[in-house]
Amino acid sequence: MTEQFAVEVTDLTVAYGEKPVLWDVDVMVPKGTLMAIVGPNGAGKTTLIKAILGLTSAAAGQVLIYGQPYREQRRLVGYVPQRGSVDWDFPTSVLDVVMMGRYGELGWFRRPGRKEREQALVALEKVGMVDYADRQISQLSGGQQQRTFLARALVQDAQVYFMDEPFQGVDATTERAIVMLLKELREAGRTVIVVHHDLQTVPEYFDWVTLLNVRCIACGPVADVFTDENLRLTYGGRVAFLSRNGAQPATAATLDAGATATGTPLTALSQR
Amino acid sequence: MTSLQIEIQLIASVVAIACALPGVFLVLRQMAMMSDAISHTVLLGIVIMFFLVGSLESPLLIVGATIMGVITVSLVEVLNRTKLVKQDAAIALVFPALFSVAVILISRFARGVHLDVDAVLLGELAFAPFDRLAFFGLDLPRALVVMGIVLAINITFIVLFFKELKLATFDSGLAAALGFSPALIHYGLMASVSITAVGAFDAVGSILVVALMVTPAAAAYLLTNDLKRMLWLSAVIGVISALGGYWMARWLDANIAGSMASITGLVFLIIFLGAPERGIIAVALRRSRQRWDFAQSMLTIHLLQHEGKPEAERESRSDHLVEHLRWLPDHAEKVIRYAERKGMIRRQSGQLLLTDAGRTLARQAMVH
Amino acid sequence: MDLLGLLHDLFFDYTLRTVALGVGVLGIVSGALGSFAMLRRQSLLGDAISHAALPGVVLAFMLTGSKSPIVLLLGAAVAGLVSTLIMIGINRYTRIKEDSALGIILSVFFGFGLLLLTFLQRNPDARQAGLNKFLFGQAATLLVEDVLVMSAFGGLALLLMLLFWKEFKLLTFDRDFGASLGYPMTLIEILVTILLVIAIVIGLQAVGVVLMSAMVVAPAAAARQWTNRLSLMVALASLFGALAGVSGALISSTGAGLSTGPVIVLCASAIVIISLLLAPNRGLLWHWLARLQNRRRLQTEQVLSNLYLLASQHAEPTYPHAAAALQVMGAKPESVLQSLKALAAEGFVQQAQNSHWALTPTGTQRAEQLVRQRNGA
Which pTM was predicted? Predict the structure, then answer.
């Protein structure tokens, strides 16, 4: 029964100090889904990914990938961290970075060789960066850096991908290219989970969405779950949202957050 | 206690406080290693001044040393700004070079002068009371006078510029926007560090200067969030370490400075382990408690959700928990006992029932 | 200072040769492993570990009663490693930042070493404790057996570095990614630190505590300016380290009062300064020259366009104008003549009688091209 889910997160709880950053988060992601994780700043989105990947210790919860504990399924998982998490002044080339994606397969001691080089070049071709293969990474633009990271993920040939804000600070062309790539991955039966900051583009880019604000407010297909109501619950009423079909905004719900929806819908605010 | 011993302890305390004050800002501004760098490069300042002035007694030596401290910081800044070298590398490049120049100058041109490089690094507190000075009619150890003046300068600096220091440390952008010059504050602080290093190392040497600047401040950082309290705490911790170190040195008949540095480490260790909230033990206990609290919440929520419903009897059996919450039997039993102890549930003929407190807890946790 | 004589001594003077070999090995190993420390923003770790090694040396002596270099080296290494683990611990489990942790380790360990040393000698005066050698090294008194030990441990460290090359690269560049691949990043971090400790500890004998931090960072900082490939950078750093070591040894052998340690550090610093200035692409001189060239080019283009503007008031585009007329237009009157000369050299203008200048036909073409570009190409 659990085999139909690519990723199953249950009861995930992470707390650094006294207050929890993630509380009792349950996320079930079916195979072949392109899912966004959205939520306000400090909602725990990056923490969620890091906790799933074991990069942060959790107070409770478990993660299953294709029905097995994550630790035994690392081969199936690819990770694209935030662009800012790395020092781009490091002396290395684009090709070299992409080849790092094969280090998992190589294991200890073996060096990357011609096969890895070719695989890397193929991945670079897919993201349109093959001409930059020998470029020093400090000379790349934001969009090019992101594409390099994506190529590195592609070369891992994973079944499940976790990406942290891949659209952050990239130009429009790169954004379109990345979306196409993600959709191709989905067509190929892979599952892609993306921390996303731009509410406006969620319905267009993603099939599923998880609304996160310390707790999981909702998780499911965009059509069912990406409602004004849920957004208000997630963002505490600080978002005035343009209804997709022009319907009137719902009456204000009483929330612990206390804020009520504004009367006139305007453009959705993106979260950065 | 003889007056000699009293004097030594007095000097040690004054040094400790004088070091702790700028040390707090070094720690907060993540420039702790500047203390190490400056306490080495002041030697070059002293040497150059010595060549210019010709005498080892001149107070201009301190001026030279202070200037060199500021130059050190500027050089690091210049290197950093080229973007070719990161800041920590810049520090690691600048101070050994300057120190090497000093060492070579001394051994080439100042042989036979009582400018021992060892003395710079190591100091000797035990001899301090023998070097005396007449100060306003009182016969005092020179180190005490010098450090007393340094302490006064440091206190004045911090009191006068407290607002600016605080702002520049935590939000230099805002400081600049408000018209304060973060650069001036920065260099002022470094000048303070230099004066303190120079004044102190005759008595205690540069290694102890680093120990007294960084370690008590770091320990205080684990104890408080308030800047003023951090300053007070560092001073107190510094004095305790210094005095403790002195007595240990006497007991072991060992080097005073080394002993004091070691005690700063010991005091730090104790605070590192035992500090409330931020100490290791407190953190570990809290993590553990959070795990149990979370499990307890899960249990009460589970019970609440089924309470009063037809399946309640089935769902609230402890063996059912194993299946439904996917807990191992041992773990489930421990959670149940934890919740019982906390008065959230009670057992009744094989069933688990919520108490009022338990119900409230579950409701709160669900809304959270 | 007779250079030939020096080189001769280098090969035939037993002492100098030994010293040069020793510091050469030191330079190679610290240059290579220091590259990783520098890239990981842990340049000052060298300083901290050097100081922290003291109690290890003293304890090793206290426990074994032996002053053999291997024993002391091992003692230093253990102390260095323990101090690093503590530093990692402080960093991970508290909000105290790395630089403070380094300062704590450095001063507390060193102070503790002082305590032990003076306690051991029943003499609380540290200055008599013979710390001189530890603080400043005694390269000049290196023996062959010292050099052998240095080479053995250094060689081992380099071998391990090559073996774990890609793991170290992963750790330094993107630790989280490496963890997601399943690599035990903490263990790898400990390994690279152990290697750094070895590099530092074998160097302590030669240059001493205070200066060792430079030997870890300077060759690497210099090498970074010349290349963008990690492998080349590490190789260059080794080369620069050896170069600094050997030249330092040579220079200090020529004069009295020049102890080897400081001279080596100054050689290394000189290499850094030269690299920062002259390296292509990153070097400061390069940038400065490039900027100068750019500015000159813009100025000449400005002058050419201005001349064209003036000339377009007349029937002929080649109507000569006084340089003075150009000087009141445009930004920099002083450089107008310079620009005119440069333009003449390119055949775009020619000088008419007394400081009047006119466009040539090619100059006119070029000016038109420039104007088109500026107006919206």
Answer: 0.84
